[in-house]
Amino acid sequence: MEQNVFFMRLECELTNKNSNLAVIKNVFEQTIATDFKMSWEIHTKEQKPKTAIFVSKYDHCLFDILGRYSAGEFNMEIPLM
Description:
The protein is mainly α. It contains 2 helices and no strands.
């Protein structure tokens, strides 16, 4: 069944030291999110989101993700393994 749902993860670096996350959130809400009826969140790199991992039947996908996680490449928490 088609749900008409789109998921996206975007990572960016704000190089301007004067960037204000509250202002960015407010502008995004007013200029984009409201018009498209988005459910959205912004997290800083200090916040580690709890993440569930779903992979295909191929073990190498899971091993790659867990290897990268163990090496510190992913800023997330996997609560159960």
